[in-house]
Fold each of these.
Amino acid sequence: MTPRSKLRAAIEGGGPVFAPVCLDPLTARTIEGLGYEAAYLSGGGLGFQLAVSEALLTITEVATLTRQITQRSSVPLIVDGGVGFGDALHTSRAIWEFEAAGAAAVELEDQIAPKRAHHHKGVEHLIPAQQMVEKLEAAVAARSDPDFLIIARTGAVRNESFEAAVDRGRAYRAAGADLIMLFPSSDEEWARAAKEIDAPLAAMGAFGTRSTDEWRDLGWPLVIDPFSGQVLAYQAMRDAYAQFQADGTLGHDPADVFTVYREVQQAAGMEDLYAIEERSTEKPV
């Protein structure tokens, strides 16, 4: 099975498929090694990593990183396609690029294009539902592999109403979206969404807000964590370097750090690269 067919089968099997944030090939290989069934290339996370907003990312930047990740890992990669980088025509090209780059799925949302940096502060501007339907129809028509999943995301719960989000979700499903993502604001809405939208649903949030069993009991087949890994890695790096500034230590035994450094080499696949050299340019004397 291909990464795409594996992801589709896992979601159609009911999941839940847990997809942690993934912003580089090393993380993808680590996620894969831990047994996760998917990873998520977050637009917001990539924007922060580059010290800009997701709103300023180019399709080339996202597609290039997608290709780098899928080249070195077979974990199914879900790519945050944002607002499709424009209208229906631009969305079509985004699908071509991400599919060619090896992504297993793309998430598209119903905010305006160009997207605004203020969405990070919760200020979102939605496009009319019909305009999003047209973009999704174009996305479906643009894909060449039917196993390439299209996830339609709506921000209508917060910006319009839960009822409007349900209406949008139904319309996006009718337009051909494989999964619908929305953001319920109460336990009642979480339960209602699964009953009122006849489609597989995708959730987004920190894994730790629910236990694994609670996520499973929710019945949504895809759960994406778009930021926890990045935040925790940043925190560990910041605290270690701050401690070195304060007292000359990293807060970790140097021997332990070196042991993990060796693990990093393993996770990066260096043994395979060493083997190639040993068969060619670095042959034992």
Amino acid sequence: MRREISILYHLGGHENIVKCVGAFEGQRHVYIVMELLCGGELFDRIVERGKYSEKDAADCFKTIVQTIQHCHELGVVHRDLKPENFVLKTKEYDSKICAIDFGLSAFFREDQVFHEIVGSAYYVAPEVLRRSYGKESDVWSCGVILYILLSGVPPFWATTENGIFDAVLKGEYDLTADPWGSISEGAKDLISKMLVQDPKKRFTPDQVLSHDWLTGGAPAKKLDNAIVKRLKSFAAITKFKKLGLIAMAKTLSPDELEGLREMFKGFDTDNSGTISIAELQAGLRKKGSTAATEELQNLMNEIDIDGNGELDYEEFVAATLSMASQHSGDAMEKTFAYFDVDGDGSITIEEFKMALDKMPPGARANFGDVNELIEMADQDGDGLIDYEEFVAMMTSGTKADKNQRKNAKMAGYA
């Protein structure tokens, strides 16, 4: 249960993953508060329509695979993918899809092998039944989902669970009987590339998303890896917000940090406690990123707050926190309290200096003039930062915002 909560926090902020508002523990129960999704299960929509058109299926399926790709890039394997675990946000015809139920999910490092049998019979990959599998098992399950989206029936069928397992291990499925005669060769080709017994020969999520059936023959638009996106976002923010996120990294709970801690360990291959540019690039390459060395070096320069040429744990956490974690009201209050040492509801220059004094020497120098940092956030000009001003800087806080505010002050408008 704790792992599921940690995973929900870790994946937070993605529009196609159910949002965890918070988790609370009482004397007898654990309470997980999640966003309300009232559109019903994707499976019910399939049954209701009988089957999806190819366009419906392609649009729906692309979202599913993009969501799983996002999970994999952040080091999470779902392990229980099925239509029932994709829920529609609303009852509208074109409602967004949300992945739910991460109770069997796990954090993983690249090339990690799992051995326990988990999942649902119709969707389980053959290597799971053989007790030796990795993230590729999610792609098999996605292949089964696509088969059902197009035909309305599962590819592997029997009257007992053991019979279904036997069918999965044989790997024989039909792409000729009704309705497959009226389904495009492209769709059938994609299914055949996903329902491959050997996980090493199976399509990756990136290959699935680049398949002609999903792209319409056009080249697939290459998107940034989820981690690279977060690093770029951190690089573009003001020094004030960078300091705020480093403070936030110090105040988050173990459940909220578990995913980032596992990711950090995966990159830190020499167990030195820091991530070098070579380790960062090698780790991202394993996750399918093609980011250039020069681009990563520029990002490293912006993220390496203490200037030692490598990323330590708190720098990495601050740079890769999800937007959901950054904007969490609870996290924001704890971070404000980290600076507001005397608890009087405002941050003084002296308190800001105290926070900087807790940073390594290189970091203190990097943040520059404290008075300038305070001035940028101090909207009413009283020399203090109250909670509202702090939240305003933390929820915007890009370099562009800083320049706009500076220009406004010079013009006498702020």
Amino acid sequence: MRLQWFGWTDPGRVRRNNEDAFLCLQFDAQEVRYLGRVGESSTGREDFVFAVSDGMGGAQAGEFASRVAVEKITRRLPPAFRQAAVGIDAGRDDVLTELFHDIHRALTFLGGSYEECDGMGATLSLCWFTPGWMYHAHIGDSRIYYLPAAGGVKQLTQDDTHVGWLRRQGKINEHEARRHPGKHSLQRALGAGHQFVDPQLGAVAIEPGDQFLLCTDGVVDGLFDAQFDEYLRDPALIASDENPARRLVAAAVERSGRDNATAMVIEVGRSDA
């Protein structure tokens, strides 16, 4: 199979700095390569990781926190590839869990060591693509969506907020969740004074025509779930913009813009296409 990816971020219309970050990474047992925000490659001999992170904290700490989160990924995942190549497979869930714990420890240390980093924390939503599979890990209120080739939109992750819990219990709907005053109050995140880290983990078997969307809450603030399907699959909108991530972010900022907005779109195709 081949992967085609697109990334875009915007500070929004209110905030001066952008505390979001996104990562496109290709790696094997020997090296790690940072990828551009737009690209295409096969999934044969190398793995791919895409991630978005929303930082939090005073001064520039939030911006720094999200970058700490994505940069830690480059150190943890290549060794797992090497181990799998020689038949030593610790399990991707174990690798991803340890990665999240590593980031949490780093942010907690920085937040407790420097006054300007007090309260530093970050959300993190990550997709790890191997031949035939996408493994995901998540904590916070950024999101990962799955748009299967057969149609529809499925949110793979759960928001680590009380409002997210209310919605999962059927006590409020999507429109009520968006208007709820506590929608951005996180119950779990990396760093930010949280004691425990328990990332959500999962896997999806991929096939040509599938799409995946990673986005921060600034995108969710501006668009409803059904609109993701529209903006990613409507032929007229596709023809108007070659970068679907930019298309989503621009629409979200136009409708809301109160927060930084970041999106990554990954499309699965055939290697002979």
Amino acid sequence: MRKNFVLDTNVLLHDPRAIFGFSDNDVVIPIYCIEEIDNFKRDLSELGRNARQVARYLDQFRAVGNLGEGVDIGGGSTLRVLFATRSIPGELSDAALMDNKIMAVALELREREKDRATVFVTKDANLRIRADALGLVAEDYDAERVGLDEVYSGKSIADVPGNVVDTFYATGEAVVPALDLDDRPRPPNEFLLLRDESNPAHTAVAKWSAEKRRAVPLIRLPKEGIWGIRPRNKEQAFALDLLLNDEVKLVTLVGKAGTGKTLLAIAAGLTKTMEEGVYHRLLVSRPVFPLGRDIGYLPGTVEEKLNPWMQPIFDNVEFLMNLSRADKKAGRGYHELLDLGILAIEPLTYIRGRSIPNQYIIVDEAQNLTPHEVKTIITRAGDGTKIILTGDPYQIDNPYVDSTNNGLIHVVNRFKMEKVAGHVTLTKGERSQLAELAANLL
């Protein structure tokens, strides 16, 4: 049975292509949404770009037919732009609220077209509650929603005969019967814990090779580690393997605060730029979202404005500098690396349209990015560039994304079967005992 899907403003601002996401059904946009979208059209942010795209779509359809009567938009769907022809219902007595006017359109449509179900689609949880109280079917919108418990972790446990673990230690690789006989495709860079069936304490960490269809060892680290950093748990070892593997061009690291995501990424980036010379420079950025109440505009140049936001990056670089005892690094601080052009700090705001070759790019706090923003960043990668996305989906400051539909989680699931991509979810905090307790208890 065909349905009427009435879209709220926030759905269109979140994803302009939501108009095309309801195949074989009718899409209805209340005229009041257009008025709200008009307020964002001059905005230079992602919201502004989405607002302008919605306006372009509607203008194209207007040229095809009358939007009030309905226009075919493909996929068996029609699009209508409607307004409330009756007075606002008593339950929505405050007609000054745009939310009430938008809901009034859905309520009127439900009464007028009883031969089909009417569904109100909004990303506003409070508005969904109000709609439900009025007897209106309300749903959230997200074409890419994935529950956190469903997110690919990048690792798995393989219970094997004891001789398989022994063979792996002796030869550096081993056939894993349970995986080798499994016909379903496995992620190319998935990490394994090989566990002896008869003795669970007898284990080995490995990586699944899709080409060889067997377990292979991780990249061997120098005795002193990289920039004084050595992995403290197997997940950090997995992360460093991806960060130091030049064949893996896209790495996603997900984990709670204190698991070492950013520190490991910066240490690997400095190793690949300063010591090995694989990349021309280390470029670091993070979305600009304040925690709590903002302090207002900051004076100075772009670099001076960015300093408060990028201070966590500088703290990590200074920490690595202090850990390193090599003469060539002794006494250096992040200011010297900036002056030498080895380290660059740039805002994501100006990345659109650029092509960035031969660089090691770290995007910290990527959970605050929308899927479209992440796409914009990754498509900037030029020849020889490696991109690292780090973040904690439980710490989101962007009001327009949540733990299940942010750009970081979107990339993890979309790229898990690609040979050039790898992912690890880190779970054990290593910052301090206090930080670990806070992350788990608060």
